[in-house]
Amino acid sequence: METIFNGFPRISLIRSCIILGLFILAFTTALLLTPKLQSNDSAPEFDQTIPSEFGGWKAIPDPFIQVSLTTDKNYSVNLLYDQVLMRTYVNQEGGRIMLAIAYAREQRQDVKIHRPEVCYVAQGFQLISHNDKVLNLPSSKKPVMAHQLLMQNDSRYEAISYWIRIGDEYPSNGIQARLKIFKDGLHGKVLDGVLVRVSTSLNDQSSLTEAYQKQEKFILDLTSALNKPTEALLVAH
Q1: How confident is the model over 151-161, as pLDDT tens digits?
Q2: How far is CA 163 from its chain centroid?
Q3: Which H, E and C letters describe 187-232, residue by residue?
Q4: pLDDT of amino acid 30
Q5: Nearest to 216 by CA among 139, 146, 111, 164
Q6: DSSP character at residue 92
Q7: In whole angstroms, how far apart are CA 118 and each of 39, 114, 172?
Q8: What is the domain partition of the chain in residue ranges?
Q9: Helix (H, G, I), strand (E, B) or coil at 183
């Protein structure tokens, strides 16, 4: 008995199976290529895990407000980062160093850590100098590709040492960061990231070299005083 369906072209069983198989393959591939979060289940508690006293340095209350970790000081850091720590440390000689740590569980093309030189300029500073600095920290499995900045706002100077870790790498610029995020995404990964920023206020540029040397010693003392889980958040493992 003929029906209205007899007018439609017949699709063979083999062709139907091939089409179904292609749909299944496409669906499976999409699942495999969907980035999976490869980081901690919860944000770290830096207030508890970063020691307030180590290597001759001691955290103190400081009325001085550090430069924001975002490009807009009115933009909440909690919208960009999962955990933020800002402290000021002093040593017995009266040296003063500001520490800022910003951790984000997910680094994506549209959500990534802001570099200090961008944040400072956005808040009225001028970039005077920018040098690359390799830090050989025993706690890191590879040399830390850090940066040294000198920023100026009117008569105020700040010497800054910082690095950014994304996954197991230290991207030196925004392009490298995007390539790292893209490469991990192709392998189905969304890795975490952290910014570690150390800064010192200066009256002039004459003490710049000494400031960088003290910052490097501070960084070594800090990373040596961390427990293993916290250490693994700040440097590549």
Answers
A1: 999 989 999 99
A2: 8
A3: CCEECCEEEEEEEEEECCHHHHHHHHHHHHHHHHHHHHCCCHHHHH
A4: 40
A5: 146
A6: T
A7: 26, 7, 14
A8: 4-33, 36-234
A9: helix
